[in-house]
Amino acid sequence: MQIRSSGLAAARPAASNGPAFRSRNTRSTNPPILRTARRIGTMFTRPRIKSLLIALPSALAIANAALAADRPTNPADWPALKDVYKNHFLIGSTNLDARNFGADVVPGENSVAAMTVKHFNVVTPGNAMKPEFWNGGISNPTPNFLTNLTSGINADISAANARDVKVTGHVLVWHNQSAQWPAPNVLTANGGWETPWDYATAKTNLEYYIRTVAGHFDQAPFKTYAWDVVNEAFKDNPDNPADWRNALRTGYSPEERPSRWAQAYAKGGKSWDYMYDAFYAARQNTTAILNYNDFNDNERASKATAIASMVKEFNERYAAESAAGKGRVLLDAKGNPRPLVDVIGTQGHWDMRLNLDAFERTIRTYLETGVNVDLTELDLAPTLGLDKGQRIQNGPEMDALFKEQGIQYAKLFSLLKEYAAGPGGRHPEYKGGVHRVTWWGMTDPGYHTNGYPWSGVGQPKEAYWATTNPEQYLIDAGLPPNGVTATFSYGGESFKARTWGGKNAQAMLDINVPVGTKNVIFTAANVSLPAGFAVESMKFNPPDCAVMPGKPCHVTVTARGPAPATASVENTATFVLSFGKMTVGWMDAANALEAPFSYADVRFSDGVTAFKQYKTSYGSDGMARASGVVETKAVPRHGRATLVLQPQDPIAGPFGLRLQKDASTEKAWRLVTRFEPGRTYMVVSGESASNGQTQAAALTNRSKPATTASPESLSRTPVVLRGDVLVPLRNSNAPASEPALAQDNLKFVFEEAKSPAAGPYAVQEGHTMQSFIHGTNAYPHIVFRGNGATGTVVAGQNSLITRQTNGQEGSQIAERALDQAVWFNTPIDPKTGAMKMFLYTEKDGIKQHHVLKEVNDGETPNRDAGNAISQRQGSVGGFVAMQAESPTEGTSVRLYAYDVESYAPDDEQPPTTTPPTTQPPSSPPPAMPIAFPFRRSGGSLDAGDLILALAGLAALAVARRRRR
């Protein structure tokens, strides 16, 4: 059956209905922009693209005070956000309440209702449609929403529709706020903690729930425009994102908020099949847009890739099934079949440490699947860094925070406009675009403190003015309106990269180098920047830029432009260039691929080596099988791709490279001896005492209770070490059928950072440790020490704290207090990987080290009595930040990363390099100036190096001519 739907590809709607959607080949037109902040309510008739894109920000900057003074004072002149973005995307909030949409409500700024109808053309209920709204669960066949048609959620949706405001239902399937779907966990005879439903029961009731709910809200007047079908189903940091099945939450992983739907399906079926069943049932029962929604995908490429892999597979599978007569086909306005999953939603619970370059990479990953992207739960909070119960009062500090927030909002919306699904978007190469932007709230303090465009009703903040005209706001702040694009030359090729700039953004490039290259030569002469910008520093990791398969060289180029008009931000641009030899990392996936196939992650492709790739198709059991279609081709030069290969097929790669599957090329958690940009690590001690035995244990973002000997802090989890390979253990609560995969709370992302503390480490780079898990919030958790408040220090030992430990959700650590969170390390032993980690502070005349120290007291109970679905593992002991005289008093730890083994091509001896580490206080801090041409240590010159040297000299000569 074919049904023509007005869903995604409707004709261009009126302003209140949001953007039209362009086809793949339709080129967009540039949107109108506001002339200046002083005329913020007046539109141009033609865009001033040249002045917008290439004018030097410093020439156009004006003082922030003047900018604020010249803004319209009459609220009637404040732009409605839905009108500003009518050619780009829908603008939404969570203000779904019939009182906000009454016939007597006049658009304005004097009430929540007035602001709602003025600014928004789509709305999402914050909690009113989560699965728990079916009162009584399966035992109640007549829940309130089916019987009370003129009140409650039915009245709210009807009122919104009457004012032409679309409603996105949130959410059909979720592991949280879903007490009766599936049935609650109970203790089993063997001590398990499980839902009593099995596969057959769960599948029947999943289809019943979706048929009833989605079907009801597909009828006027309470029809939904879209549905978040499944919410937050993925783990936060999967090892093999191509194998999206093992990237999903299961019944026992992660420890916090596992999935009972997956748990139930696993008892007689396959745990991941509930995902496809949910979307399939929704498509049969509603014409609404179908979304998949998740968080923490903005900075973790592995999670975004896993989500994209699932969506691509689902849409391919449904297209084949519906074409064969299974399932109905909905057509868009052009008569084309709509996919099963129309939209990928990324939530956007962020703070000022958001890496916009990483978020742009996520947008592109999603758009490459052919679907649209929604920003579904936006709040972009200033980093207040407060202890519990504290508030920063209005004044200079809050003003500075709000100016920084305004800049970040301006950059975000400049980015979103560029990728818009409406005619104002500028990326016609994608079939879709950014289709909706919804705030999870509207005014401060809101869901996450102070993250919204308004501080209160009728009180716009810098964030509001930045959103109304992001490009002009950035120009007025003395910053580039569309990021900073640089060109890099290497090996006779040119590479372009753009960054949105500032402290946290980093553009990233992979560059293939020939097998014979021992050391990469790259200097400031290889960098071309926009006018007004100059290279400030270049950092090489390792210092001599030696490169081996599995061990690339990373060059971090930082450039600085003219000083901005506000001291709250930096006008810097950071680019990370990774130079590597081609590698193939093999990953088995028995749950996804039929033997003998494997996933193979090709990185730093030479563009020549061809791989025999197997086209797969997906049966009703969800298993990928070879379809008989084989294509032999190379991955594009410098590119990265995950392929489906047969290990037995020969790979005719360059001599000296190990591309075939063997013990060294299989991806595993391997010992490493350096930090690399954006990588995920486990921090492991080999000194752990447990039950009278010594066993390796990993630092864990799980709360260790306080004792009389040590404070509440972070826990530890036993792991197995086999040589240089770490083997994760299965969750101790899980059955043998559960895969033994590393839990999210064992994984930490190390980001370079500087401490505000004076002293011997003031000029050195340390690292913050971020943990991406979903407990009580959706921010990344930065590990920091307690500041000495009650309960955070016992016997000279300080707590290790993340946002969800130490009693309740707290605030992110502030920039001014990063001495509590920037970790340094002693030199890493190049053979054993051993090092010691520490913090350092100087305050009130006191100079103090805090070392990472393992303790053996504090018993973490098995499971969380306050969480009905937790599968937390019991443990004893953990880690604290112990006050110390020197870093050597800490516990020796090692780093493990998920990768292939590095090696010297053709069995050559690897070059001797010194891992980049923090020097002890007795040594002078290392200088990091711009590297002089061809200066390096270690390695030897070969013909390839000499060619690159000549290319560098040529580039330098060209640059000098340009300066003349």
Q: How would you describe this structure to a colleague?
A:
The protein is α+β, with helices and mostly antiparallel strands. Helix content is 18%, strand content 26%. The chain has 17 helices and 45 strands. It has a 16-stranded antiparallel sheet that branches. Strands 2-3-4-7-8-10-12-13 form an eight-stranded parallel barrel, surrounded by six helices. Strands 18-22-21-20 form a four-stranded mixed sheet, with no helix packed on it. It starts with a strand and ends with a helix.
Can you lay out the helices and strands and say which pair or pack?
Layout: E1 2-4, H1 49-54, H2 57-60, H3 64-69, H4 81-84, E2 90-93, H5 112-119, E3 122-123, H6 144-147, H7 152-162, E4 166-173, E5 186-187, E6 193-194, H8 199-216, E7 226-231, H9 244-247, H10 260-266, H11 273-285, E8 289-294, H12 301-323, E9 329-331, E10 343-346, E11 349-351, H13 356-367, E12 372-381, H14 396-418, E13 434-439, E14 454-456, E15 459-460, H15 462-468, H16 470-476, E16 484-490, E17 493-499, E18 507-512, E19 527-528, E20 534-541, E21 553-560, E22 572-580, E23 583-587, E24 598-603, E25 610-618, E26 624-634, E27 641-645, E28 668-672, E29 680-690, E30 693-704, E31 713-718, E32 720-722, E33 725-727, E34 748-753, E35 766-771, E36 781-782, E37 784-785, E38 793-794, E39 797-798, E40 800-801, E41 824-825, E42 837-843, E43 846-860, E44 875-884, E45 893-899, H17 943-963
Parallel strand pairs: 1-9, 2-3, 2-13, 3-4, 4-7, 7-8, 8-10, 10-12, 11-12, 12-13, 18-22
Antiparallel strand pairs: 5-6, 14-15, 16-17, 16-19, 20-21, 21-22, 23-24, 24-27, 25-26, 28-33, 28-45, 29-30, 29-34, 29-45, 30-31, 31-44, 32-33, 34-35, 35-36, 37-40, 38-39, 39-44, 41-42, 42-43, 43-44
